[in-house]
Amino acid sequence: MQTALRTSLPETELPSRANFVPHARVVHEERTAHTGGRPLSIRGLRKSFGANEVLRGIDLHIPAGQFVAIVGKSGCGKSTLLRLIAGLDEIDAGSISFGGDVQPEDIRVMFQEPRLLPWARVLANVEVGLGRDRASSDAHARAEKALSEVGLADKRDQWPSVLSGGQKQRVALGRALVSRPRVLAFDEPLGALDALTRISMQRLLERVWRDQGFTAILVTHDVSEAVALADRVLVIEGGRIAHDVTVNAARPRQRGSAELASLEGSILSHLLSADDRT
Amino acid sequence: MSLIDSVSLPRSLRLPRLDGLIQWIVPLAIIAIWQVASVTGFVSTRVLPAPSDVVLAGWKLLLSGELLRNIWVSFWRASIGFLIGGSIGFAFGLANGLSQLSARLTDTTLQMVRNVPHLALIPLVILWFGIDESAKLFLVALGVFFPIYLNTLHGIRTVDPQLIEMGRIYGMSDGELFRRVVFPGALPSIFVGIRFALGIMWLTLIVAETIAASSGLGYMAMQAREFMLIDVVVLSILIYALLGKLADSTSRVLERATLSWHPAFQKR
User: Fold this and answer.
1) pLDDT band at A26; cut points 50, 70, 90
2) Among B183, B197, B209, B185, which Cα is nearest to B250's?
3) Which residue range forms the structural domain that includes residue A161?
4) Measured CA distances, B163 to A1, A51, A147, A180, B247 (Å)
5) Which part of the chain is the ABC transmembrane type-1 domain (chain B) (predicted)?
6) Testing the interface with A: which of B169, B183, B190 to mutate, by most A Cβ within 10 A?
7) What is the ipTM of this complex?
8) Which CATH superfamily is domain B58-265 in?
9) At how many degrees (to 10) do helices B25-39 and B51-64 cross?
10) Which residue, among B160, B162, B170, would best test binding to A if mutated, counting the most A CBs under 10 Å from its CB?
11) How many domains does chain A have?
């Protein structure tokens, strides 16, 4: 307890984003040395499946802690890019680097499906996210903390089958967050949710990103979601980055504001004009 | 799951005390009708003895110790045969579900053997083992092997690949992946195999004991037929029914205990 207090002292001096949520400061004590995101550099990235070349040379730099959204038509390669970043598929050519050594626990993915183990209680599902630290003595405590960050502390002993779709996705988010990742990749995590649940999940994503400062990469087909959440929107077309749009709107963002709507409109027209060309 | 379980009545209509008894109404009614038919002479006692006579025969055999001894012998043969065949089937199911090499090596052979009715081997088995214990154990083991093998294999192969990918992403070792993802995912299917196997276990044992044995329930029934003791024959058949029900209930209890996460086993 003593050491925990000491490490948290300098933390309170900083104009921390964490002040929003009371227990976010607790989070910072734990991995003070590690908190914050990792930068991401991609050089000449290519990927083919058989004769089909999905990614044709991607060059991209994402500064640490940035929230990047990737949009594009289905089949444009956006999910492939995300899977390569997360290390789920082999790279054909090019490189991805995270500015130094990374542990597997530093990079996490969240999918469209929650992918919870149906035979494990909610808390045990979150513990899965600890990776190699699963066996450590504080695994329970860390999982409980992650669960309360996503607002589901009271569901810890439930089976996943009794949760709603949005709650399952929040457990999946808790599982992704529990190892304090420094890069978090989202593959259409809200695609299967209803409109209202989506909006509250978007707020939750934004909040945990602000609290923890990881680098966020969100693949989505929903342009309004992209402009509402991201600092920067990348439009992918034919396996290349066709547009790189910076979103300067101040946070917290007003959903449906004129500024976001016009940005959304211009990105959509990019996407649709690409459609006309093909 | 029986039909009664799946059609759930509104709570107010349910009589909780009768819930456990309701399944016994039909068997008890059949016995009552049977008793009446026998007593009134509608059914000749040489065709079918009255239930009361069957109970009486059972009581006599119980007092002489013969009944319990035969039940015990049959039960022992069934369990040992089940354990041997079940574990080998489970081991092959695991190996072929987890390893492509093992599946390519043995699956075709096993599928060919599976299509031979195992009871067709009885003459051969008698030649090999005589009417020894090992003959019965061999047949039971062979009978339970296939349902457990096939369902274990099927269970492992149909585990959600997305969950396996998830496990890999979160750094599970092969052992951990098996323990936390593959095995629990295959368990419902393994239980289906166990329940099939329990049925085949009794069937095989009884046929084997009827043809070649010097003890056990099947032997008791055959002896009784030789002496025209039809009440003992009927008694044996009824005991088979009860033992089958017992085996099924045991596997249900196990299912409920291990699959409590499954929506189908959660209390409504």
Assistant:
1) very low
2) B197
3) 116-180
4) 38, 29, 20, 21, 33
5) 67-248
6) B169
7) 0.78
8) MetI-like (1.10.3720.10)
9) 100
10) B170
11) 2
